[in-house]
User: What shape does this take?
Amino acid sequence: MILPIIRTAIVSLRRDRAALALSFLLPIAFFSLFAIIFGGQHNSTPKVTVLLVDQDQSTASRELVQGLQHERSLVVRTSPQTNAKTPLPDYTAATAEAAVKSGDAPVALIIPKGWGQSPIGFGNDRAGPAIQLLNDASDNIAPQIVMGMLQKTVMTSMPAAMAEQGVKYTDRFIGGLTPEQRKTMDANLDRLRQLQSGGATGDVSSSDNAGGGFIAVNARAVVGENKSSPMISYYSAAIGVMFLLFTASGAAGSLLDESDSGTLDRVLSSHVTMTALLAGKVLYNTIIAFLQLTVMFLWGWAVFHLDLFSHIPGFIVMGVCTAFAVAAFGMLLASICHTRAQLGAVSTLLILMMSCIGGSMFPRFLMPAAMQKAGLFTINAWAIDGFTKVFWRDLPVSALWPQVSVLLAVALVLFVVARRIARRWEFA
Amino acid sequence: MASAPLVSSPAATLPLAIDALVKRFGAVTAVAGVSLEVRPGECLGLLGPNGAGKTTVIRATVGRVIPDSGRISIFGFAAGSADARAALGWVSQDLALYPRLTCKENLEAFGRYHGLGGRQLAASVAWCLDWAALTDRAGDLAGKLSGGMKRRLNMAAGLIQRPRLVLMDEPTVGVDPQSRNRIFEMIEALRAAGTSVVYTTHYMEEAERLCDRIAIIDHGRIVALGTKEQLVHDAFASRSQVLVRFVGSSPETAAWAQSRGGRMVSETAEFSIERPTEIAAILDSVATQAFELADVSLRRPNLESVFLHLTGRELRE
Assistant: This one.
């Protein structure tokens, strides 16, 4: 009696093509996504963007800047990016800090004036001013990478400075060099500097030598330093948007139920037009989605100390725009699909992929650059970016205009397309 | 939004005028030139087997199907126009209700979709609940009602805007005899109030009880239209039917029936005769063929006979 049950199940699955496709395509799709993101299939490991301010302008500081610029794992910017022909002025300590605060980069390095006098030290024996590292506390990986790269660069790009400091220590701890020894040492250091300036030290990025503690660095979080739970606001938005997409798709499926039951026919034979019907459903789903977000953030406030009540205007703006976008997305899916089963399969596939690429499952800054760009095609990414601006960066509502514009535009386009596809229900 | 009448009198005064309606779905012609009229206060029965085109005619009248050609006017207004929608009620085969809403909430929802509000809506909901004998069930969820009650609520929802013409598409499908009688009483009450009705059904007895005139539709065409008496007379004049039932059927019995101008329907051979004395000749022939006879009967033709005569099929096929 077991075999007939298996046979019936196989025949049913074969007839339900959406479920069949979901059974095999979904695992493959997710395996591929994760392989791309974490497997480095396209040799595009994530790079850390560093803003660099050289206040010292000494030989040592220029060597350090040059060395960091050669690092493949870093994207070093000394001035803001622009499409204009004339480049923007270099970052200052203030503009670099502002840029980190606004999320342009996770880390900024400021080489203070006088640093080149004594760039390297061992242990507590540091004479000059320390390099300032400003970071965004939401990304605790980037400052570690930059810190390591700093030490590595000193070893590989500044051999003269290393040797010079070594001589100073030798002079100090063995009771002083004779004039002849000092003369010979200075001559050799000059030769080393000439070789170094001629590029004879090789490709810094190919070296695996990494030291630690040669350069004094004072790290300071300029964003999120006072936040008690750094990632709560991030995941409130990230998980919230993903589940909003699921619930909006499910709610929009009422259109399919009404079509099946004949209620849609009855409604459309009254004074209600298809446009009014879809608009009503999208508006309803927007309200429900916003309420869901509100409940989720209230829970975050009550249990995880999320600072909701200091960010009410930003939350409302981002909440409404996100809710509108997910509601329109759900309506588009419902209008494309012909059955609830299709809607379930298609929405699961799309939403999980969008959530994966868009940062709902793990932060986008951990992804390769190409995947980060691909994420910009998802509602998740724009919504998460907006909520992060509000709750993490404490930016004003006016700073949300890119996210608000994109989400509203996406919502309108999706609604118009859904309305167009829904013509199939209007007349036969 | 008001729309200008499609045609002037007398068509404008007709509840429904369909002229040369044609509708194709791909290669299939569902309706092939249907023309008919419904007079004020009349109940017109639309009879036909499955796939005959009844529902397409109804849906075109409601404005849910766009005809390839032809014209439909409801009290002079084009099908699908705002005035036509206001004047037209539609009771579909489907139970087009919100199962999680109560009876009253369902009626209120559909009333609002038709633009009703305030006292007008409350009065209309009360009338519909009373008409469908659901006043004491007003607060019950639609999804929890019995099959018969759901059907009645479904009918009431189609009449919430108090239309002057109602299209009923097989409203008694799946209903027990008691509930069916209740539905008949509802329709008779509606007609007594002067409402015109178009009634599609598979059941001859429903058409005979409720309809003033009957249109028989087959393969997308009206093959007969008139009162029951007219249809029977047109098909059979003064002739009667002899039904000869055999024990089992065979190709031989079918060939024999055909050779004598009759036809086999299941195990029964049907003949149309002018005089009762013709029965003897038929029975003599049965004896000659040595067929095993179960019984023989004589009857006056009815709508079923007319339908079979015109379409070659039983109504429920």
The mean pLDDT of chain B is 87. Chain B touches chain A through 26 residues (CB under 8 Å). The first strand of chain B starts at residue 16 and ends at 25.
